[in-house]
Amino acid sequence: METRGLIWWKAGLVALGTAAFVAVPAGAATASVAGADDMDPSTRSNMKNAMEGEAMAHAVYRAYAAQAERESLPQVRELFERTAASELRGLVAPQAKQLGMVGDNAANLRESTGGESYEERTMYKRFAAQAKEDAEPKAAALFNEISGDEASHRVRFARAAEAIAGRSSETAVPTDVTVKPASIRAGMPQVSSPRTMRNLRTAMRGEALAHAKYVMYAERARATGEPRLATLYDRTAEVERAEHFAEQANLTGLVRDTGTNLRTAIAEESTAGGETYPMYAQQAAAAGDTASSELFTAAARDKLAHAQAFNEALSAIDTGAAAS
Predict the structure, then answer these.
(1) Signal sequence span per UniProt (predicted)?
(2) Cα(149)–Cα(158) distance, rounded to whole angstroms?
(3) pTM to 2 decimals?
(4) Which of 4, 21, 135, 156 has the fewest Cβ atoms within 10 angstroms?
(5) Are residues 271 and 163 in the same domain?
């Protein structure tokens, strides 16, 4: 049986600051990134899975850090926060760069608008209808609520695109995004339907990835002299993680006690570092994607180091040293 049901991190799928994630020259489009066009399809698929999994890990470790804080375990909280930052800055960012994911502001806005439109009009509406059929009213209500939020995001991104394109001197990039953080509490799942649980987990992966992308898009906007667009992305990123992901996490019972959270993290990091990334590296090397193979190999080392640090933290909890 998969540990705590969280092996779905690897399957695919701000607030730790606004560090520079991807250095893309001004005016560069997505396809201009070296290696993005000629990457083997299998390497590209593996890289996307890896990036989405690390975005998920970032969001999960932020939640685990908050739980460690509630349990008065400051050293464990700091470890989870550092690891969350490492997942986002040290793993998601270079993987996104390898994929050529961050383009110019116009391209990023087109991608953002399309993504929000799909979630609003297709994904969340379907999930809500299925949750209603599954007699899961809490999930149905949440899916409908998030669909409405995504509609407002779509509208704002569309307005921002018009403003950036200069089609209307009266159109300004909107920044009126209100973030209402939800606390992720330790607890058991609040849904029993397998289908609705799968949909919640799919949605969580999507929200975690959207958060990571929008943080990178914000950095792109800042680097190109568009501070209002950066603010729009930063605030929308926080809605995706601190509201949508958090509310879904509570329904799925994502967070448990810190000891259990550490064991889950150890299993995830060990599998990624010892099996998944080495396999990706081998496949990329066989396909001639040397840079990607090296990136996967470096990621494997990072993941195993994370697992070791989590093991040490778990031992400290067992001996009572983690609260000091």
Answers:
(1) 1-28
(2) 14
(3) 0.88
(4) 135
(5) no
The two tokens of residue 272 are 């990624």
Residue 173 CB: number of other CB atoms within 10 A?
A: 23
Assign 125 to helix, strand or coil.
helix
Looking at the fold, whether 198 and 168 belong to one and the same domain comes out as: yes
- What's the pLDDT tens digit per position in 175-185? 999 999 999 99
Q: How many CA atoms lie within 13 A of 134 on its CB side?
A: 21
Q: 3-state secondary structure string, 281-314?
A: HHHHHHCCCHHHHHHHHHHHHHHHHHHHHHHHHH
Q: Residue 269 belongs to what domain range?
A: 38-101+257-319
**How far apart (Å, rounded) are the C-alpha atoms in residues 282 and 42?**
11
CA distance to 22, 107, 120, 176, per residue, from 217 (Å): 9, 10, 20, 18
Domain count along the chain: 2
Last residue of a domain, one of 256, 274, 295: 256
- How far is residue 6's CA from residue 252's CA, in Å, rounded to a whole number? 10
The better pLDDT of the pair 247, 29 is held by 247
Residues 272 and 243 in one domain: no
Residues 172 and 235 both lie in one domain: yes
Residues in the chain: 324
The DSSP H or E segment spanning 243 is none
Residue 9 covered by a domain: no
- Contact between residue 309 and residue 301 where contact means Cβ atoms under 8 Å apart: no
Give dist(CA 311, CA 291) in Å, integer.
Answer: 31
Query: By C-alpha distance, which of 8, 88, 25 is closest to 220?
Result: 25
Residue 44: which CATH number? 1.20.1260.10
